[in-house]
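Predict the assembly for these two chains.
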Amino acid sequence: MKKSVFLGTLAAASVAAGVAAAGTLDDVKAAGELKCGVSTGLVGFAAADASGKWNGFDVDVCRAVAAAVLGDGSKVKFVPTTGKTRFTALASGEVDMLARNTTWTFSRDVDLKFEFVGVNYYDGQGFMVPKALGVTSAKDLDGATVCIQTGTTTELNLADFFRSNNISYEPVPVETNAETQAQYLAGACDVYTTDASGLAATRATFENPDDHTVLPEIISKEPLGPLVRHGDNQWGDIVRWTLNALITAEELGVTSANVAQMSGAAGGNPEVNRLLGTEGDLGAMLGLDKAWASRAIANAGNYGEIFATNIGEASPIGIARGLNAPWTDGGLIYSPPFR
Amino acid sequence: MTDFSYVRTEMLEERPAPTSQTGIVKWLRENLFSSVPNAILSIAALWAIYFTLSHLLPWVFQSSWTATSLKECRASIAAAHGEGTTGACWAVIRERYLQLIYGFYPADSYWRPNLAFIMMLVALAPVLFNSIPKKFMLFTALYPFIAFWLLWGGSIWLPISIVAGFVLGYVAMNIISKQMSELAGMIACAIVPILWFLFFAGSAADVMQNIIPISLESVESAKFGGFMLSILIGITGIAFSLPIGIVLALGRQSDLMIVKVICVGFIEFIRGVPLITLLFVASTLLNYFMPPGTNFDIILRVIIMVTLFASAYMAEVIRGGLAALPKGQYEGADSLGLDFWQATRLIIMPQALKISIPNIVSSFIGLFKDTTLVSIIGLLDPIGLSTNIRADQYWNGIIWELYGFIAVIFFIFCFAMSRYSMYLERKLQTGH
């Protein structure tokens, strides 16, 4: 049976291959769904609920793009990818875009031939220690045992940090994040290190979160953002400006609650009008219609709303905006103007 | 009359054996306390069991079944059993057990995998138990196509046209081997189905679908997950690796140079590579070889790789069985005038397979457990799903409950397989 299906599939594939050369936008429109690569499960960023519906910060970015392009934020096929399969999935066309907590680095952008369209979350590696240890700075950690996930950039950052500060540490290598949590709670290591968002999410699950503290040092830059393949600039622009539309909407006070009313007729703020398509025709330049951005915002709200629902201080994860506040509030979230 | 008064005239009542020689006391004395070192070990073991259970049982039973988040679980356990009690949060299993079993399969179609599973048991019955008439094997042969259609849905004519290809091949072999030579028949048997699949199968299915449309709603592979995925990969791998393994083992012993080299090369190559590497080939490398935009089903790719992997191991297990057969069996078969296939089918294989049963079943169990490796390439098998469930902000932090549940289910399946192999060994026991 398998052999026959194999051959059948190959035969079908060779027919399908002729069609696939068109642009990603056309492919997505033809398929009627956006194939979006997400994490197999990362608290607050991507997770499926009991009915199989995906939720999360990265997931909402996918949905916003689907809403802009296809007019419906539910027309997304989520493809769970692991740290090891994500880049091939994107490069081979298995997914149209990747929104999977991926750090924007030189080699990924240049050598792997991807295009990071922006940053949707500024993360950085931090440390968590039990309060009982009495440590207030990462520089006091001389001789500490550190639980660390193997094969990640966090492992390399850690080595760099301790070497440059000339202090010693003893790594306890573990394979998965769940294992790291269990080891840390069992006291197998003094320090737990991973991205600050991960630390906050993990700390929130502890029975006594107040017994643990996150140290002030952030030892690496981890700008996380969605990415697409090199070479299809129109598609890259669509994803980039969808993300920018969410960010701009927060800055201009456009929310999921008032976007419908504001898109109805041109208002007093020309940039809002351009964003929502009541003035000018920015959508046509992207190959979309006028209302693309208002649909993207209506789907799950602007950047601030997406942040608040999934990982913000009111959610069980409780991450403060910090670096991810809009630039007007002293953060780094900044979009080029819609003009 | 002589006085025989010292002779007892009536029998003594039977008395119960001394307490030290019966029942539980005897058993304890003989098995647990027969010597001082034994007694020490027994007490140590009892203490270890007590220690484990005294920690495990409260955790298992002082639990919460109804909460909707980890926080709520902790609160309700603290409320019911006192502050500071740690208990299992089984509520996560209650909320997610369907997901752990079916993955993201549409809920209104759960009857399809259920039916496929029941039919699988029916299809396995004639293979597993001798008492069932052999004509049921026809159903077993058709089962893969039925299961494929049930699980993935779509038009019924696609699996039927694939079956038709095999039937055509069989018919062609019969006709041509009668008209021409047996070799030509074998070649026709291989070529006719391939031609059919490449050029006619798809269009025939379409035509029939237009005439008599019968179809189930299609379910894409991305929705497969949980134990359904494990069982699907495991059973397919098991079912196909045995015949392929037998062929490879025979090929390896063959006198035909090319056949032998191909079989040895295949076996050694596959055995020399870890399964996870093959899975990565299936999930990532194949994508580069195929034209962009190709959608060659990921589950199918994984099943093929797992089957190839299991076949190589199976071939070596069976070769072990072949090597263990006394040379006299081969010579005996020759002296009866049987040709190679007859000897293999009637004399060699039944004995070699019997010898290999424990190892074959070990391979099966290993293969079934290895299916959890697919979580590394992003398929949501039970382990992959447990990561996903833990990523839910309400359940983040739950570890043991999920792993425990998965372990219990795996244990049930593996234990059943192992008991069946013991039954089979007893049944086939011919030693004296």
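Residues 2-122+224-329 of chain A form a domain with the D-Maltodextrin-Binding Protein; domain 2 fold (CATH 3.40.190.10). Chain A has two domains: 2-122+224-329, 125-220.
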